[in-house]
Specification:
The chain contains 26 helices and 34 strands. It is elongated and about 165 Å long.
Length: about 1000
């Protein structure tokens, strides 16, 4: 025994060592594969971000140029308006005070009147400057283009054929804004390369750092900053050291700024953390499955070593090599679990890999959402500022026109106002008197009267005409005079008399000026990891307002692939966009739904290969462990069996094992079943369990431990939330409440917690009522059953919410349905409820042998409404679940075939017992269906005409009836051979002669010993 125990321990240590070596090799392999995919993904992300950086640099240059062009257009409009005024008031141009007043009014820093040769005739704030000789100014002005000198921007407008008007504006503020817009910091500071990664710009000429998130690094040489020289080669890709820290880097020369090299860097620690995270998940699954399988194989070895010699001799072997054989019986048993373990290993590793990367991506969406909101908030501030500047600019324009009209009433002419509108870049100009009547203008309705309807667009301008307010700036809206035009009206009080000067501005001008802060422009420059992008949908029209592919802009969002659920704020889930399944996160900003989109394929890249590698490694390890476990030599086993027989070890009868066993249905299907009397036992000795039951016990304890840890984690995580954690993302229910990997995971967690908590409560109740009497135990059983059912039902209805089903609505619908169906569905409902309780209570299971009334058979199916039972003639009885009562569950590993036979009173009982002692072992040889016995059970009764004795044998339940017939036959033949009479009813007309006993004292002694021996052997057999 000690040698066998030592061998078991050595084999277990060998298995653990093999698993440990495989874990190390698998870790190295997974690290290599995951590193490859991570670096490939990082390379793609870095190249994408460098492309975004390049696009931002170009776009910001264009925006700065566009800003200057808009500034020039406004400034030129001012000068053109003044020049047009001077066409009718030419004499005033020679007055310096007039020019000063005009410059102040129109926000001009310098104002010059020149002749046709650009020689200055008069000026305001003029300098000693010669436009006719200063080539830097004169050349541009002669081409009628704006020219900048120092901080002043000069514009020219022709008054008439003899004079020009030149104005200058200080653009120091504009230059600062443009410089900021075109700076490297403005373009690069918001671009992130994964977690804690960023972009660096290096001046390729002097090798100094032009941009770095750490401003203290800007201006340093690459040597001072600790850069490797290889980084400055265009197209560099790989690991490099920066300031003593390792980074994964990608570099390229900027097209917008060829003097700069852009370097995308991400810290090595961040990449390794993400790699280790995924590898650890795979290793955890691998280690757990391998540990369980090693335990199972160890349990099988222990169980097989503990078998009786006869059972070991019955095992089937296949010659492997030389004297070595493969235990086919043991191998077939291991093969089922090995196959299941490999499948679970693949499914679990693939599932957990998917869950990890997807939840991490969705968690990062939250960070990206915060970044986008910050960008939009910043843009909103810019939008308000630009709108305010726009309104102030046109309000000043309206005041300037009112000023000119007050100076020269002759300008109150439709044609002149039309020229003013063109020069001032306005749509319309109207002049109203104190009665709200338009007395001049270039609009469609030249005799327009302000409405007295408070809902009318023009009504608010009465406040300006009546002097209640100096000006009014309306929002852009459909024009009363032309519903097809959208205009913005601005009105100011007239300076010469009562009335109002009103201008109409096309919103296109504002839209052009605000282009740089529009949603589409902003989204185009937002970088999303894993080749993702941003898109926008108008919340009212539900049409795509921005998409990277302009062909989709303007179409319905549902045609693109967005579901109705996705057209909402804070949506998180999967959508198929343009035929590609994507992970999507939404946020609402003003009138748009903004979506962060990443294709699912790019997120889950490599998970299948990693799962296959884990599965292959697991299969190899399990196969080797299983293979070496089933190698044996049947000759040694036979010799050991013979030795045990010589020692009398086989004299003890088989005790009925408390283990699962195989039963065969009438259709020939083999089903594993547990003995019925073992199913409700709470205390079972570990040694009495077979390998499968031990494995289930280990898995149950493991799951219970994980459930407790998970419960503690969930409780703690509600207070401390780490959005990068897989479980945290699931626990906080940030995902869409529809069937998906997150909802199913959360439901599994909830069901696990429900089972664990209810089990703990039931266990505590059972412990509390121990030794408190039958009444307390009865109440405790009822309470425990109530807790079990209520907890499961409550958890099911709670979890329905997370797959898109409203539990309350379902209950209400069920209530209404029961009222509608009424009495007609009572039997159906009874059948369904009875079926549910049969399954929950475990009264019988598929594969159990039961007796229902006089019908005996194997349970084939427990359905929603009925149960199907097959007898051994392959007849099937279908019974409604509600009609199943008085069930006798006969599912045992061994049943008993009885033979009760009578002998004459005149027959010597001791002689019969002596004969049975010799004959019964031969009966087992002739009847292979006998598992143990036959056994002599003694005298059952003293009948009217006979002494009834009992003989029984252990057998499979499926063989009980035919074995009973065969056993009766064998006993009859034994009695015939030995001249033992079996009495039968007869009429005696004379007193029979008394037979003399021919049994010897030796036979009597043998009979007594036989009876004592049979009593000892069968003392543990339940049928007494």
């Amino acid at each position: 025994m000690k040698i066998q125990k030592r061998k078991k321990i050595q084999r277990l240590i060998y298995d653990v060592f093999l698993a440990g070596v495989s874990l190390i090799l698998l870790f190295v392999l997974l690290m290599s594969v995951q590193t490859y995919f991570a670096l490939q993904n990082q390379h793609d992300n870095s190249i994408e971000k460098l492309g975004v950086a390049e696009q931002r640099l170009v776009t910001n240059q264009e925006d700065a140029a566009d800003l200057l062009a808009k500034y020039d257009a406004f400034s030129q409009a001012k000068l053109d308006t003044i020049a047009y005024y001077y066409q009718f008031n030419k004499d005033e141009t020679m007055d310096e005070s007039e020019l000063r007043e005009m410059g102040d009014q129109w926000d001009l820093d310098e104002l010059y009147v020149t002749d046709q040769n650009y020689q200055i005739q008069n000026s305001f704030n003029g300098k000693e400057i010669r436009f006719d000789r200063d080539d830097s100014l004169g050349e541009g002005l002669r081409e009628n283009t704006a020219v900048t000198k120092e901080n002043l921007r000069y514009y020219v407008s022709q008054i008439d054929s003899e004079n020009y008007l030149i104005g200058a504006r200080n653009i120091a503020t504009l230059q600062y804004t443009m410089s900021d817009m075109t700076s490297l910091s403005y373009s690069l500071k918001t671009i992130k390369i994964g977690q804690k990664g960023y972009i660096i710009a290096v001046n390729a000429k002097d090798r100094t750092i032009a941009y770095h998130p750490d401003t203290s690094m800007i201006g340093k040489s690459i040597k001072e900053a600790g850069f490797e020289e290889s980084l400055l080669s265009d197209g560099f890709e790989g690991w490099a050291e920066i300031g003593g820290e390792k980074f994964y880097c990608n570099s390229q020369i900027s097209e917008a700024y060829p003097e700069y090299e852009l370097i995308a860097v991400r810290p090595q620690k961040m990449i390794w953390d993400s790699i280790i995270h995924l590898v650890n998940i795979g290793m955890l699954v691998f280690a757990l499955i391998i540990a369980i399988m090693i335990l199972y194989i160890h349990f099988i070895r222990v169980e097989h070593n503990a078998l009786d010699p006869d059972e070991q001799n019955e095992m089937q072997y296949i010659r492997f090599r030389g004297k070595y054989y493969l235990n086919q019986t043991m191998g077939a048993r291991i093969l089922h679990i090995l196959t299941l373990g490999v499948l679970i290993l693949f499914g679990a590793s693939f599932y957990l890999q998917s869950l990890s990367v997807l939840s991490t991506q969705f968690a990062r969406f939250s960070d990206k959402k915060t970044d986008i909101m910050a960008i939009f908030d910043e843009n909103e501030a810019k939008l308000k500022k630009l709108t305010a500047e726009y309104n102030a600019e046109y309000e000043r324009r309206a005041n300037n026109i009112a000023y000119l009209l007050a100076k020269d009433p002759s300008l109150l002419d439709d044609e002149k106002l039309d020229q003013f509108a063109k020069r001032a870049q306005l749509k319309y100009i109207y002049v109203f008197n104190g009665d709200g009547l338009a007395i001049a203008g270039n609009g469609i309705d030249k005799q327009f009267i302000l409405s007295t309807d408070t809902k009318s667009q023009s009504y608010p301008f009465w406040n300006v005409i009546k002097g209640h307010q100096d000006s009014l700036i309306q929002e852009v809206q459909s024009d009363d005079t032309s519903e097809q035009d959208y205009l913005q009206y601005i009105g100011v009080r007239r300076l010469d008399t009562d009335g109002m000067v009103q201008i109409a501005v096309s919103p296109q001008r504002l839209e052009n000026r605000l282009k740089a802060v529009q949603t589409s422009h902003v989204l185009k420059l937002i970088a999303v990891e894993n080749n993702g992008f941003c898109m926008a949908v108008d919340s009212e029209t539900q049409k795509v307002s921005y998409y990277p592919d302009s062909n989709f802009i303007g179409i319905s969002a549902t045609k693109l692939g967005l579901s109705k659920r996705a057209l909402s704020d804070n949506y998180t889930g999967y959508q198929t966009l343009n035929g590609v399944q994507c992970a999507v996160r939404s946020l609402q900003y003003q009138d748009d739904y903004i979506y962060i989109v990443t294709s699912r394929a790019s997120i889950t890249q490599g998970r299948l290969l990693i799962a296959l590698l884990i599965t292959l490694a697991g299969f190899i390890v399990l196969f080797l462990i299983a293979f070496f476990s089933i190698i044996g030599n049947p000759e040694k086993i036979s010799k050991r069996s013979m030795a045990e027989e010589e020692n009398g070890s086989n004299k003890e009868p088989k005790k009925e094992p408390k283990v699962s066993f195989e039963i065969v249905t009438g259709s020939g299907e083999v089903i594993q079943a547990d003995p019925i009397h073992e199913r409700w036992r709470t205390k079972v000795e570990w040694k009495s369990l077979n390998a499968e039951q031990k494995l289930r016990k280990v898995i149950s304890v493991t799951i219970a431990g994980l459930g407790i840890l998970l419960l503690l984690y969930m409780m703690l995580n509600m207070r401390y939330y780490d959005n990068t954690s897989v479980l945290s993302y699931i626990v906080h229910k940030k995902w869409e409440k529809v069937p998906n990997v997150f909802s199913f995971t959360y439901i599994a967690m909830i069901m696990l917690e429900t089972v664990v908590v209810s089990s703990i409560i039931i266990k505590l109740i059972s412990m509390l009522v121990t030794n408190m009497g039958a009444k307390a135990e009865t109440i405790a059983k009822l309470t425990c059953n109530f807790i079990k059912y209520i907890s499961i039902i409550g958890a099911v209805f709670y979890c329905l919410t997370y797959i898109g089903i409203n539990g309350k609505t379902l209950l209400t619908s069920a209530g209404l349905m029961s009222l509608v169906v009424g009495l007609g569905a009572q039997s159906l409902i009874s059948d369904i409820l009875a079926g549910i309780f049969i399954v929950f209570e475990g009264e019988f299971r598929v594969g159990d042998i039961i007796t229902l009334g006089t019908f005996r058979g194997t349970v084939l199916e427990i359905g929603i409404r009925s149960t199907k039972i097959e007898d051994f003639s392959q007849d099937i009885k279908i019974v409604n679940n509600s009609d199943i009562t008085g069930i006798v569950n006969m599912t045992r590993k061994y049943s008993y075939a009885y033979c009760d036979v009578g002998i004459e009173y005149t027959e010597s009982l001791e002689r019969v017992e002596t004969i049975l002692q010799k004959e019964l072992p031969r009966v087992k040889e002739r009847l292979p269906e006998i598992e143990a016995g036959p056994y002599y059970r003694g005298v059952i009764s003293l009948g009217d005409s006979s002494v009834v004795i009992r003989i029984l044998a252990q057998c499979q339940e499926v063989h009980r009836v035919p074995l009973t017939r065969d056993l009766n036959r064998e006993i009859k033949l034994i009695f015939d051979r030995n001249n033992i009479s079996i009495p039968f009813p007869q009429v005696v007309v004379n007193e029979p002669q008394k037979k003399s006993s021919t049994i010897s004292k030796q036979d009597k002694l043998a009979a007594s010993e036989f009876v004592a021996e049979q009593k000892e052997i069968t003392k543990n057999i339940r049928p007494q």
